[in-house]
Amino acid sequence: QEDLVESGGGSVQPGGSLTLSCATSGVVPSNCGMAWFRTSSRQTPPNKREWVSLMTSDGSTRYSPSVEGRFTISRDGVDHTLYLQMNDLKTVDTAVYYCAACGVVRVPTMVHYWGQGTQVTVSS
After folding, report:
1. Which residues contact 124 (CB under 8 A, 6 or more apart)?
2. Measured between alpha carbons, how far is 40 from 25 in angstroms, rounded to an integer?
């Protein structure tokens, strides 16, 4: 059983929208911060985990400048599922998106839990 399970990835045209979900297992504490990262072959070095957005345990949110104004992170108050609403998608948003939880969720090497990733492809 995975600790975090992402879903909602897929293919979309530029300007389109997708919503990613990250379901948590009972192993993941409900009071942890959570975040979204992404990797793509365009990054330097390739497949380096790029931070996208985070939500702290008190509900504060932060966004990478590359997605601010287009992406929205949120979390269900009951089952603690994490979401990433992605609007006005661009080809540069094409990546594998990963959910992360607990630890220092802004720093990939200090994250405690990872999901398996979900592919998002933006192309015309």
Report:
1. 13, 14
2. 27
